[in-house]
Amino acid sequence: MRIPVIAGNWKMFNTVGESLALVRDLKAQVADAQGVQIVVAPVFTAIHAVAAELKGSNIAVSSQDVYWEETGAFTGEVGPAMLKDAGCAYAIIGHSERRQFFGETDDTVNKKVKAALKAGLIPIMCVGELLEEREAGKTMQVVEKQVKGGITGISSDDIAKIIIAYEPVWAIGTGKTATPAQAQEVHKAIRALIAALAGTQVAVGLRILYGGSVKADNVDVLMREEDIDGALVGGASLKADSFARIVKFSK
Ligand code: PEP
Questions:
Q1: Which end of the chain is less congested by CB atoms within 10 angstroms, N or C?
Q2: Under 8 Å between Cβ of 213 and 172
Q3: Percent of the chain whose pLDDT exceeds 90
Q4: Which helix (H) or strand (E) holds 164?
């Protein structure tokens, strides 16, 4: 009922030429993939070229961030309509690297999610706890605050359009994956929270992706969990072979 989403976050890797070579290879390898939404998130400079290369394919394009204003004197930022114009259908918002290194807060995430929705981009809103927060037993408290903060003031109809990515920070780029049971526990709690905030129907349809060292050899067990509806993949999305295998997960 919930169409799975496999999204590749390329982070700050790949020139335009490298991006095009990667998606050409990927496009050929996943051409027969069905029942899954495939997304790649190149750096800003490669979005337009990648989107043109992927036109008519089964792979959509996402940005890795978005600013909340449409236009203006905001040097260095890119607005949602500009991303849409360049070929994006999705926008990753609130990735932990942005929270950690660039001052992203629940408040800025909320503004960005609203702006993305207004422009017709699908937000992939990231949440997740630090290792010390997990060890202190605060995982759900942290995740709940991030989810609530990110969707404040957004209607249930619009919440239904959002994708949430649960990415425990200690599992990102570390090779440590949350166990399927650890991920499932948090995903289930997020769905229950959305049910309380936006109603059961919205919660039942909401896609919740897991992110954190997802690889070809662990995607299948993660995807077998009831509340895991896909993956946000960093490192393993940079090679067409491994990302294609993740796209073709088997339950
Ligand atoms: C990410 O960048 O969102 C991510 C989950 O990275 P990795 O798969 O490399 O842990």
A1: N
A2: yes
A3: 98
A4: strand 163-166
Compute the distance from residue 95 Cα to the ligand 1 centre, in Å: 9
**Domain encompassing residue 223:** 5-247
Looking at the chain, list the stretches that DSSP marks H as alpha helix, in order from N- to C-terminal side: 16-30, 44-54, 80-86, 96-101, 106-119, 131-135, 139-151, 156-159, 180-198, 200-205, 219-223, 240-247
Report the domain count for the chain.
Answer: 1
Q: What is the CATH number of the domain that holds 103?
A: 3.20.20.70
Ligand 1 atom at shortest distance from the alpha carbon of 126: 3
Residue nearest to atom 2 of ligand 1 (CA): 234
**119-173: per-residue pLDDT in tens?**
999 999 999 999 999 999 999 999 999 999 999 999 999 999 999 999 999 999 9
Written as one string, the DSSP assignment of 102-141 is: S---HHHHHHHHHHHHHHTPEEEEEE---HHHHHTT-HHH
**Catalytic residue (choose from 53, 95, 97, 133):** 95
